[in-house]
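Usage

Read records sequentially. Each one opens with the input sequence:
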Amino acid sequence: MPQTLCPSCGHSPIPRGAEACPSCHEPFEFLQMYKRGQRKRVDRQRDSEEMEQTVFGGNITGEVTAHPGPIVAVFFVGAVAWFLRAGGVLGNLNEPIWVYGLVALDLVLGLVLLLNLGPAKLLAQVGMVLQLMVAGFLARAAPLEPVHLAYMAHAVVALVSVVGEPGPVRRYAGLGLGVVAALLGAVFLVRPMGPVDGAGGDARQLLVGRDLGYQLELPAGWGRLPREQLAPHLTLPLATLTGSGVGFGDAAQGRYGALWVDRGASQPVTADCQALLKAFGGDPSIKPSTKHAPLAMGTKALVYELSTGSGARGTFSCGKLADGRLVGFAVVAAPPDATGGESAFVAVGAGLALQ
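and closes with the structure output:
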């Protein structure tokens, strides 16, 4: 049986696996066979690590990053739902312009999960907690409105989908629930359902725009209406960076109205009011009447007769507040009872408050 010798002092035998001579303690690192063995162990370790990497270079840390498809779909559906809400595409909730940030948040977090960049799972969890808090903040005036509950439910579903190690059942259940919550949010944007303020027919809906400083208590039977339901009897302008509006009415009685508040008006009040009257569907060439504007708009507000292309008739009031905000308020009645717009204007205007 061949014996192993120390190349330095000749000591024999050398124990198997020894890295130095037990007699003279000379290390064996200089030997080519030892170096080749070390390189093989390093290569095996590197191959093992590379097998655990994803195509995009991140490390698989659990079920969220290993199977991101259904979870990413929930985030992308949420981005679409927030875009419809922030842009007033289906219904105008008078949201501030920064709500578009939630659209970007959902898109970015979805891409981060899909590409498995950095601590993707942790970023998604923090992002959904933030989105849930913002959805709750936007619902502070009416937290039980179905549209707000739907958007908060979507944030909760997305958060649950990225917590822990979701299996196939939780992933696909989250996908289904997330899509349903987003669809319900869109439906409630089109057909708003106000909170229940009591029993019977005396329930009143309160419209609040904290960022633009208005509050409107509607008469019994009236409620928020999207611009699609106002048309063709009354036009609600699209939201801008400085202004936004809200539509309301009693469609069963053929009564429609809208309120607009803009912080960026810069022209003389007459020119601004004529432009806003035209945007509401009226004739900007008519002269102001001697009728009284709602008390909240002040004694200097202008009042115009309003007749739209559908034959609806009513009243439009416009004025600038002391802080420079331009306020437009209109109520019309549709045919065949187009003569009721003036009385409806007075009734609804009594519930208007401007801070």
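Summary fields computed downstream for this record:
- The first helix runs from residue 32 to 51.
- The chain has three domains: 1-52, 63-190, 206-354.
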